[in-house]
Amino acid sequence: MFRFLRRRDAEAPGNAETAEVDVHAQAAERFWQRWDDLLPEIASALGDSVPQRIESLVADALAQVHPNLTFAIEHGEKAVYALVVSGQADPELRPYTDAWMAAAPPVDTLWEYHDSVPPVPDPTEVTVNLRGEKYPLADVRVVAQVDEAEGLVDVAVYHPGFSGLEENARRALTFLPLDATLGERLAADRLGRVETAELEPEGAIGLLELRELVRELDRTVTAPPES
Question: Engineering a disulfide at 107: which of 73, 112, 113, 174 sits with its beta carbon 3.0 to 4.6 angstroms away?
Fold first, then answer.
């Protein structure tokens, strides 16, 4: 149906964008209707500490929005639970997650909703288990170079544990702290070049300082122009 609407709109200029938005919104509405139907079963599964009992049901509902979206049910920041849907930083999936979030019900004491993986409250308190070893993110140091014209921050990430890791694991330990610090969406929007530093660079900062720097840039970039 989506391709049919695009073909028809090619003959009627000006309607393509509206049609695509409608398709996304309709899919999102169907998900939330299904979610409402599933809530008693979800509550029962979570109460019994067996979330796997309802994983396939939620996955099937979410696939109706887009088959490449992923989800997780986690502890919420303000509510008891959080439903987190992610497009894994794929810009082509952003319209689907935007529509999903726009149609979400109001947050209450039991559920909150996120359209990307949120940052952890304090990444310096997180320890990553990788290849059987533990790597405290408090040890991460970052050099950040801000490109205000592009609205991006280039970073070089250092951890003293890099020296004992092979390339893929070192790459994972490069990106995990950034996602934990900034969250999936802010990292995708505001990080430019990401490099792994084998030696601790001069002028490096910690993860909390990086978070504030990137958030300040994001506020500057997204602020409405002064009239």
Answer: 112
